[in-house]
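Q: How would the structure tokens look for this protein?
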Amino acid sequence: MQMTNKTIVSIFTFILFGTLMGCAQISSQNNEILLQGGYVLSMDSEIGDLTSGDVLIRDGQIIEVGASIDAPQAQVIDATDMVIMPGFVETHWHMWESSWRGMANDAAEYFYYSQVLAPHYTPEDFHAAVKYAALEAINAGITTVHNWPEVQNDFENVQAEMQALVESGLRTKMGYLAIIEGEMTEEPQLSRAIDWINENGEQRLG
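A: Here is the predicted structure in token form.
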């Protein structure tokens, strides 16, 4: 398939397509969506790549991939001239710093702002910054993120970031640090975060 500047490349994921479904608010009578006629990069040796293929999703789960799928009840998305592929995975992202865009231009400024601004962040600030980063991830085709909140030692702030991640629909990991500025994070605080994830994480936050 020839890719030109006018070609639209849409990133869908074979594992986490529910992320995009939740954000796009796509609806169908039988909760089925058919991505039709796209260039399928399956990343699966048994399926291979399909120059023109379909992907059928039901209730947020991919149930079939093939050259031509018959799904009369599904909502059809025309994927012609688009790429259907697994979402990208971001393994290390300080998401709370996303609101600094254009401020920190090198490593020295990065550490400076981290030390100067972090004490002034409220839970609402952490929530807004992480939510902004998460939505940018989805827009870029990233569907799995490891959030690295290196300054968090207050549960209200941690909860605000976790809430933002859950609201985004991404599959995420919350990297709650064991040591912050030489201080050990207490076991009850870690347990509290794990309990919150088990209750509110919707099986997408770890």
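The longest strand covers residues 32-41.

Residues 17-84 form a domain with the Urease, subunit C; domain 1 fold (CATH 2.30.40.10).

Upvote if useful.
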